[in-house]
Write a structure and sequence with these properties.
The structure holds 3 protein chains of 3 kinds. By secondary structure, chain A is mainly alpha-helical. Chain A has helices at about 1-15, 15-35, 50-55, 55-90, 95-110, 115-125, 130-140, 150-175, 180-190, 195-220, 225-230, 240-245, 255-285. In chain A, α2 crosses α13, α8 crosses α10 (about 195-220) and α9 packs antiparallel against α10. The two termini of chain A are about 40 Å apart. The model of chain A has no long low-confidence stretch (mean pLDDT about 85). Chain B is mainly α. Chain B is built from 14 helices and no strands. The longest helix of chain B is centred in the N-terminal third of the chain and has 34 residues, at about 55-85. The termini of chain B are far apart. By secondary structure, chain C is an alpha+beta fold. Chain C contains 9 helices and 20 strands. Chain C has helices at about 40-50, 90-100, 105-120, 135-150, 165-185, 195-200, 220-225, 230-235, 325-330; strands at about 5-15, 15-25, 30-35, 55-60, 65, 75-80, 155-160, 185-190, 205-210, 210-215, 240-245, 250, 255-260, 270-275, 280-285, 295-305, 305-315, 320-325, 340, 350. A 6-stranded mixed sheet of chain C has the order 6-7-8-3-9-10, sandwiched between helices. The chains are: A mainly alpha, B mainly alpha, C alpha+beta. Chains in contact: A-B, A-C, B-C. The interface of A and C includes residues 184, 185 and 200 of A.
């Protein structure tokens, strides 16, 4: 059936611009990085770059810190985001509260990067409003007690500002899906609130929760601008290192920057492989 | 007269949430109205510094223009594609959906390494391309916006019966172009606008790619001020927040008018 | 002493009064249905009994104890919801077991009981399935088993069959009744389907606008409706608006009809004359004149299976009667045929329209 085949191939023409564009501006550049990570300085392919960065203590430390920060903000953001989402969506809470929090989360999830970094400097920096408030009103000087915004902890606090709203937005549909009938049936059968959550609420939410936490992890891991805004290149994180490489603090081997990027990609790809089947599981119970 | 009332624990958590989000904004505001001389309240001098800075206007205009260009190219590229997929190639939908997840694995920090490497080193692209934000940045931003525009448009197309509308239009004698322009587009207006506003927020806040490819956009301007002047930095940060807020509010308003199903508003831009 | 008593229960939501002070008592083992249209307050009442809501005033008494202030998880009642109440992360068995697990009953005892109950509801081999793998009817059976597992003293059902297909509904309602009789458990059943309520209940309480209009055995409700609403809501009725005539007759649009119930009523009083269609008889005119009947022609004949609903209207279009005849009888009565419709004088009920100028008019063939 030549006519049918022609029709089918014509149909594919329609999506050609899209695939051409993504190939040129996404696939090939990504491939460039991934392949470049394995290129040797003198040409040819090698694992040398990977080995080098794994053996560099500074870089290992960066990966460790990046992973720690991502884990902490993913778990903390996940928990707080869940609590706030549940508080806003459950029965008894007026609808306007849910709308307000959803809108605000939409904004806050986007309010990252440089302006956020500065907002935290204005809040908890050395002459920040809250810092001074604590000193003047309660006599507590947090900087004297060892706190600093320009450390891992400070970055974690700042990251939470977009992690919590992101969690709120992502988990809201799942929380919505918790039917009141389940809670009522559980109470009717004699359970306490805790028993409901332990046996039904959390298990049903679990795939969505895990998926959301994974999303948050990836989000924090890949973040550059906020960390940069807080500490310039001061803090040792993988994105910062990659950025420093691009800014001209060249490594001995130009392919090392690409190897760093590849390492990051590997972590994120691993997260993605966990995320997709979880989403599928979560939607099964939403029926 | 009792009706289901908000529980105490809910109130606690909502207040905690509200406080956590309001305090930095409040702090930034208080910072921004500090007098440059006395370091205390209250003066609009910081805002004045920003508004009188020609760099501010140049960069914000540039960022805005980049945003518009990104929106136009995104819509021109994605609307026909998604329409076509829904109409003729439904099996491709999961493929494209999968591709929309790639930016999660290739975030801006990695993408910029790839783009620079590919265009500068491999393709040896000419300077008029690499050095012009309207080319280099916009092409990158379309990729950044892709997942959000895709999910918005996809939701919009799923809500209408693409087949029936197209066939009805064609049976009445309309050409493809007419069908697309007069029948399909008006029906996905809300989804397209949602995607547009999300893109606006993304581009106006994008720092990573811009700074690492040495362009001067609004976010890089903010960082420059951050490093040099404290109170104006607060002022301009607040302004940036205001812009994002306005974009999101517009999103909400158009969404409410037509009640289109949720467009996923996750964002990781400018981080 | 009654097992369950609802005393003067009142509940408002903002400006809307959902329950205007209802009273109801149930004997042990009794099956009472709360029947009424949406918004009549039946579900509100049930939820008050279950404890998911608190009344503004009034009390709920079980076995002589006031349980109005008791939280729902302490009330020893089993509830079956309309839909979606099975816990999605548990199999049917685990769902049924849940109440027992909460009460910390030993594992072996639980297993046996779960098996018993699943057999009782006819799902012995579906125990390992998850809710999404069960049909609507099966899900509700599991829900019933789950509610019964804890051996509650009262069983509450909130429109459990509304979300199911018609055929499943009929099947399941009979099973619910069978199980209830076997276990002898006091039951409150909420529904808007009058056929359902009449077929399985010991007593039916018809509700409207937050009040109980009438409570009684199904036959009583059907044969002797106390108010126009109840008459409308239960069964199909011919509604003739007429005035009382002389000597046991009513004046139906100028036509006198013999109605025993009219005897002794003041002449000229406006009444609603209710006649069950199955008591109406239709014969071909053929020169027949009846003492008390409506002459006209057949305007519609609707096949309903074993019966056929035939509608007769007079030439002026002012008077109409509907009859439910056996399909065999109705065969001769084609549309357009000239006929006479009549009913025995003792079959109609009369309700005074004097102080009820407006009453809800329901579609006689709808509902």
């Amino acid at each position: 059936m030549p006519g049918r085949r022609r029709r089918r191939s014509l149909a594919w023409l329609g999506v050609l611009p899209f695939f051409a564009y993504t190939t040129l501006f996404l696939i090939l550049p990504s491939a460039q990085v991934m392949i470049g990570a394995f290129k040797g300085e003198a040409g040819g392919y090698t694992f040398g770059n990977i080995v080098d960065i794994v053996q560099t203590p500074n870089i290992r430390h960066a990966y460790r810190q990046s992973i720690e920060i991502s884990l902490v903000t993913a778990l903390a953001g996940g928990l707080l985001g869940l609590l706030i989402a549940y508080a806003a969506i459950r029965e008894g809470t007026p609808r306007w509260i849910r709308s307000a929090f959803t809108t605000f989360s939409g904004v806050a999830a986007n309010f990252g990067g440089i302006p956020l970094a500065f907002a935290f400097i204005a809040t908890l920096g050395t002459v920040g409003i809250v810092t001074q408030f604590l000193t003047n009103v309660f006599g507590i000087d947090i900087y004297a007690n060892g706190f600093s915004l320009f450390t891992k902890t400070g970055v974690e606090l700042a990251y939470l500002y977009f992690q919590i709203p992101l969690m709120f937005l992502v988990i809201a549909p799942a929380v919505d899906g918790l039917r009141t009938e389940w809670r009522e049936a559980s109470a009717n059968l004699g359970s306490s609130s805790f028993q409901y959550w332990w046996h039904i609420g959390l298990p049903v939410l679990f795939p969505s929760l895990l998926g959301a936490v994974i999303l948050l992890f990836g989000n924090a891991f890949a973040a550059y601008a906020t960390a940069y805004g807080l500490t310039a290149s001061g803090l040792n994180l993988v994105p910062i290192l990659i950025g420093a490489d691009l800014r001209g603090n060249v490594y001995a081997n130009p392919h090392e920057g690409q190897a760093l990027a590849f390492g990051m990609f590997a972590v994120l790809a691993g997260m993605m492989l966990l995320y997709v089947p979880l989403q599928r599981r979560a939607s099964r119970w939403a029926r | 007269m009792r009706r289901p009332r908000i529980s105490l624990s809910a109130v606690v958590w909502l207040l905690v949430g509200a406080a956590y989000f309001m305090i930095p904004l409040l702090a930034t505001f208080l910072f921004s109205v500090r007098d440059a001389q006395t370091g205390k309240c209250c003066s609009l001098g910081a805002y004045g510094v920003i508004l009188h800075d020609p760099e501010f206007w140049t960069t914000i205009r540039l960022s805005f223009r980049l945003a518009l260009e990104t929106i136009v190219i995104s819509l021109l590229l994605f609307v026909p594609t998604i329409y076509w997929v829904h109409l003729r190639l439904p099996r491709l939908r999961p493929v494209i959906g999968f591709m929309a997840l790639i930016p999660f694995v290739v975030p801006p920090i990695i993408l910029v390494v790839g783009l620079l490497g590919f265009f500068k080193d491999t393709l040896h692209a000419p300077f008029w391309y690499l050095g012009n934000p309207n080319y280099f940045l916009v092409t990158a931003y379309v990729i950044l916006a892709f997942p959000y525009v895709f999910f918005s448009l996809d939701a919009g197309f799923r809500a209408i019966d693409v087949h029936t509308l197209t066939e009805a239009s064609q049976s009445l004698g309309a050409s493809w172009r007419t069908t697309l322009l007069r029948v399909i587009l008006p029906n996905i207006k809300v989804a397209a606008l949602s995607g547009a506003f999300l893109t606006l927020a993304i581009v106006m806040g994008e720092f990573t790619i811009a700074t690492l490819s040495a362009f001067h956009t609004f976010p890089t301007y903010i960082q420059y001020i951050n490093e040099t002047q404290a109170y104006p930095a607060a002022a301009v940060s607040l302004m940036s927040f205001g812009i994002t807020w306005a974009a999101m509010l517009s999103l909400l308003l158009i969404g409410r008018r037509r009640r289109v199903g949720a467009a996923v508003t996750i964002a990781e831009v400018g981080h | 002493m009654a097992h369950v008593e609802l005393r003067e229960l009142r509940r408002s939501f903002g400006a809307v009064t959902a329950l205007q002070g209802i009273n109801l008592s149930l004997e042990t083992g009794e099956f009472v249905s709360l029947l009424g249209p949406s918004g009549c307050g039946k579900t509100t009442a049930l939820r008050l009994v279950a404890g998911f809501d608190r009344p503004d005033s009034g009390s709920i008494v079980v076995d002589g104890k006031d349980i109005t202030g008791v939280s729902p998880n302490q009330r020893d009642m089993g509830m079956v919801f309309q839909a979606y109440s099975l816990f999605p992360n548990m199999t049917a068995e685990q769902n049924v077991e849940y109440g027992l697990k909460i009460r910390k009953q030993p594992k072996d005892g639980r297993r046996t009981r779960v098996r018993e109950l699943l057999e009782l509801v006819g799902l012995a081999d579906a125990g390992k399935r998850y809710p999404y793998q069960l049909s609507g009817g099966m899900q509700q059976r599991v829900a019933l088993a789950r509610a019964l597992a804890i051996e509650p003293s009262v069983l509450l059902l909130d429109e459990p069959l509304s979300a199911l297909d018609a055929k499943v509904r009929v099947q399941l309602r009979e099973e619910i009744r069978r199980i209830q009789l076997e276990l002898g458990i006091t039951t409150i059943y909420v529904t808007h389907d009058q056929e359902e309520a009449l077929s399985i209940s010991d007593r039916v309480a018809v509700m409207y606008g937050g009040k109980i209009e009438q409570v009684g055995a199904p036959a009583e409700m059907y044969g002797s409706p106390a108010t126009p609403f109840v008459a409308e809501f239960i069964g199909t009725m011919n509604r003739l608006i007429a005035t009382v005539g002389g000597d046991g007759t009513i004046d139906y649009g100028g036509l006198p009809l013999r109605v025993d119930a009219a005897r002794g009523l003041p002449r000229g009083e406006r009444v609603l004359c209710l006649v069950r269609p199955e008591t109406v008889d239709i014969v071909l005119a053929n020169g027949v004149t009846l003492e008390s009947g409506v002459s006209g022609e057949v305007i519609s004949s609707t096949f309903l299976g074993s019966t056929t609903r035939v509608r007769v209207m007079d030439e002026k279009g002012e008077r109409m009667l509907t009859a439910d005849l056996s399909t065999v009888e109705a065969a001769a009565l084609t549309v357009g045929a000239k006929v006479v419709a009549s009913f025995p004088p003792d079959s109609p009920r009369l309700l005074s329209l004097a102080d009820e100028p407006a009453f809800p008019v329901l579609d006689p063939d709808g509902q």
